[in-house]
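Good morning C.,

I know you're traveling, so I'll keep this short. The sequence:
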Amino acid sequence: MTRMKHLPLALAAILFAGGAHAATAEEAAQLGKSLTPLGAEKAGNKDGTIPAWDGGLVKAAAGFANGGRRDQDPFAGEKPLVSITAKNMEQHADKLSDGSKAMLKKYPSYRIDVYPTHRTAAAPDWVYANTAKNATRAKLNDKLVPEGAYAGIPFPVPKTGAEVMWNHLLRWRGTDWQKPFRSYLTTAAGKPVMTVDGTADGSMPYYYKDTAPEKFNGTYWTIRLVNSGPPIRAGEAINGKLNLDPEKDSSYVYLPGQRRTRKLPNACCDTPTPATAGVMSFDEVDIFGGRLDRFDWKILGKKEMYIPYNSNRSLKGKDADLLAANHLNPDSVRWELHRVWVVEAKLKAGQRHLAPRSVYYIDEDSWTGALADRWDANGQLWKTLWSLPVTMPDLPATTSITFGFYDLVSGTWFVSDLVTEKAAQYKQMPRWPEATWSQEALSGAGLR
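The tokens, ready to paste straight into the viewer:
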């Protein structure tokens, strides 16, 4: 891993400022100047392959209406600059993750088509304003729980790996939404099996701008998923609330065969989540969705990497168009060169986890996790996780809808939150009533 050579000296110095938390006033003052309002380097790279950020994409495509499809590709006319295969991957190895290189070696059909880079990430002005406030007031306590952050990126000038990961967890992606979707597990023999056909109602109370920061109770993410299929799972439902303090997290599941709602006893970490039929663990959802306190987190550097980006084309057509035998259809995935924060997680002494080491690649512009690699207890590269960030200029935001993993050991792979055949793709909703997340609402929604 190339460490700090892609960082300006000022940012490199910040990373090694031992023990500091909140940014200084001088560092925070660079937001909107040398840094974007969310904390990325505003300038492009030296050779021009990464352009300067110019405000992002904030104008929706003609004809787009909330509640409709988001498959309008703003760069549909572009052709790949390069197509990377196993034959030429060594020429691009310094810009590929370990998981990407492993997939290229394992499957001759796997290909990475790299397109021109577009820095589309954006957010509302009030998110920018709160991010500037968070820069000097937010900090992590000794439990790796953020304090003093609200309604913006908590650590736009990050100094620790844990701060980068909280930026991913608390990134801007709207406030309230609804997402019908499907998920598929594809066997090593290349047969896709649908595991979920349901609707997710989601909310980020962290971004309720009409709530005073001092009244925020720490619940930053709420979700309710109701399954309509496959038939064996029709009527199942799950809800969850994630809190900045993970001891206050709660999740419940409704099983129609039992006609009861039960609290999930260990809804975290490497426990399989019912939301994916147990295929993914809780902390693999959307690249990373778990608690941080089982790991030591370290920034390995900032690096220019090929990552999936602006991949609205993945929302087009039929599910089968995206599902190749051993991986996503390369024709449906757009890759671009972007600067990412590279963060390593190593299991703390005395803790247990199926993946004792992971490396995460977090986009500097949107703070969306784009790729991640996980190693098993034998030190073998086990899984490579991915998401497909798409642009949503009506929010505005660039963030992921669809995500999944490739199991490099078993040969199976999984795609979650596939909205390709859905009429509504990430519909923005009015504020969900608090009763939406109650146990009673869960059992009522899941009855069949």
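Safe travels,
E.
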